[in-house]
Description:
Blueprint: H1 8-11, H2 52-64, H3 68-74, H4 77-93, H5 100-111, H6 117-126, H7 131-140, H8 159-162, E1 166-169, H9 173-180, E2 187-197, E3 202-212, E4 218-223, H10 230-236, E5 240-241, H11 250-253, H12 259-263
Parallel strand pairs: 1-2, 2-5
Antiparallel strand pairs: 2-3, 3-4
Helix pairs in contact: 2-4
Amino acid sequence: TGNREPLRRFLGSPARSIKRRFSVSVDTVQPVSTSPRGSCPQMFQPLYTVDVEQEEECERIKVQRTNTVGFLSLCNDTARSQLACKIEEKSKQRELQVPNVVLQLENMINVFPQFPPLLLCSLLFRFEGNCAELYDFIVSRDWKPAPTPHIKFNNEVDVHYVASYYYGELTCKHRLEKIFKHEKEGSYITFYRNEYDEGTKQHSFYYFLCYKNANGNLIEKKTKVPVVPQVLKDMLGLTKPIRASIPVGKEIETWVPCLHSLLH
Length: 264
């Protein structure tokens, strides 16, 4: 690895001072294909290459085939509920695959085999999941990359690191209730949960949208991505995203689905 400096030089400031720049827009995530890790969903085909908002827009067009604002203004509560169920069902039918940032991180570990993987995970928050910027940063600190000409890193942010209302992995119902305890109707977050499918006998993960409805109840809906499209916000009356705090400790390892399997 050449001449390495102490690890504290790589952080530049204490880990707790790492801030996410939530104002950055979410760009297209370009996938790379690799072998599956651990118990995560198998993945031999490339991941989705369309922008999150573009994909949800296409789904909206297929379901509604008309102007969103004008259509929703004519809908009663029953029609809106039926439309929401259609979108939700479409989302369930589409298979989720290993997030691109996890594949990129696996490549990063191969390029810098002596660099601490957990430190790579922490640095991803500084660069908002942009692995090209992370690569340049590590090289600038005199680490020598392994000769891997076939590996390229995407110069773009990742949705898991720029969506301010994304909470990573949440498995405890009590924690959800605590997050929403003092929040009003229309508040919402997204997160993911690992689940075991009794039918297929396989482990998988699902993203969830959780929000407080007009009756003060917490509603969970499975989604395909950890960001909420505007059409769904309008449909469900979602007006207040609840900002997540910066993860620490073990939360860093489980921030993205399949990340823990990669590290362990």
